Amino acid sequence: MNTITPANGAPVTTDDSQPRLDRLADIAQRLLERCRAQGASQAEVSCSEETGLNVNVRMGEVETVEATRDRGIAVTVYFGQRKGSASTADLRDDSLDSTVEQACAIARHTEDDDAAGLADRELMATDLREFDGWHPWAIEADHAIDLALMCEAAGRELDKRIENSDGASLGSGSSLSVYANSHGFLGRERSTNHSIGCALIAGRGEAMQRDGWYSYALAAEDLESAAAIGRRAAERAVSRLAPRQVPTGAYPVLFSAEVARSLIGHLVGAVSGGALYRKASFLVDSAGKALFPDWFAIDERPFLSRGLRSSAFDSEGVATREAPLVQGGVLQRYVLGSYSARKLGLHTTGNAGGVHNLQVAANAGGLDEMLRGMERGLLVTELMGQGVNTVTGDYSRGAAGFWIENGAIAYAVDGITIAGNLRSMFSAIEAVGTDVDPRSHIRTGSILVGRMTVAGES
């Protein structure tokens, strides 16, 4: 992969993250003491600081330069099984005292909730490792602007059919957080994220087509080069010129890696505790049942080095663990925090706050190999709309991409709709590719669904 060099050619030489984390930890401990003094039987505190730099350019001109610095303190108290929460961004003692008082006042006036309370003490994480997620980028605004301009220029210069631009951007941010609770748990986390992206417009008038590309990573050296991103954006925009529709019918549909992860996201949403205990999921009572072909597997891997969602503990302090979500096509478990687990009469899976790095196992090669194997059908590279009903599993979304004939791209298509039901789509998956998109914590290659309804020309 092409890489870019951090702003001055060297890593950050001064790093004050540990003293800042110490300060947040001290605030969290003091707040817990104040909660106890107010009579709370349990309490938890989250403290965070975030900094960032974002620049946007368009048509060779700077549009915005924004430097951000945010912080937040959230306090939750429990009086038995009555819960109250309050938050502030003000670190003055009187404001912190007021935040605790507000949380306690709310708790005293709420109804008992049998599922309320901290996660069980014995589940708290004790191995509080880091996973190589802290890589500050010492980039000045001027250099960030130069990289964004370089990205856009590389794309605009690639092909004369690129006649307009939606701009290019560069973002760099860092986050420090502390979570502490009255079980004696205190966890610290620090992370960085960096991105460069570009969106370009090919053609003119009613024949215009827009597409783009971006790179996202925890460390600047893992980003694609600004010029390579611009060129990729241009190639994608030009490839979409002169689109056609396809006859309405049932065809194989290959979701490219960057959109395939949305299918896994729908699965995660449907097996998450909140949807399950509200009976708002088409996968209620599906644990232990076959949903996918018998070769299909998804593993949760929270301890990946430089994983986008790696963590030793979840947002309740519960130790994370490597565990299958789907194995042999069978749903092994749900995705639960302690509250939803109690609602369901189950145990937390260490997923309060979400999943940590899902890895979908491949059974095929790269995208080209999958196209040859599909022979004829639709390659989807963009999805539009929100036509997914998580209660029934019904799926209907606008789409764009390419028609495949004889195992190769024949022409661009847009203005179509693909439809099905997620349960049927999951069972109809025929292949998962090795072309993993690294820009998401859901790590999957392209996914081939053997048959879906495609609504195009009547």
Automatic annotation (TrEMBL):
Q: Which residues form the Metalloprotease TldD/E N-terminal domain?
A: 43-107
User: Which residues does the UniProt record annotate as the domain Metalloprotease TldD/E C-terminal?
Assistant: 248-456
Enumerate the InterPro entries for this protein. Answer: Metalloprtase-TldD/E_C, Metalloprtase-TldD/E_cen_dom, Metalloprtase-TldD/E_N, PmbA, TldD/PmbA_N, TldD/PmbA_sf
What residue stretches are annotated with the Metalloprotease TldD/E central domain? 135-241
Checking Gene3D superfamilies in the record gives:
PmbA/TldD superfamily
The similarity comment for this entry is:
Belongs to the peptidase U62 family.
Q: Would you tell me the protein name for this molecule?
A: PmbA protein
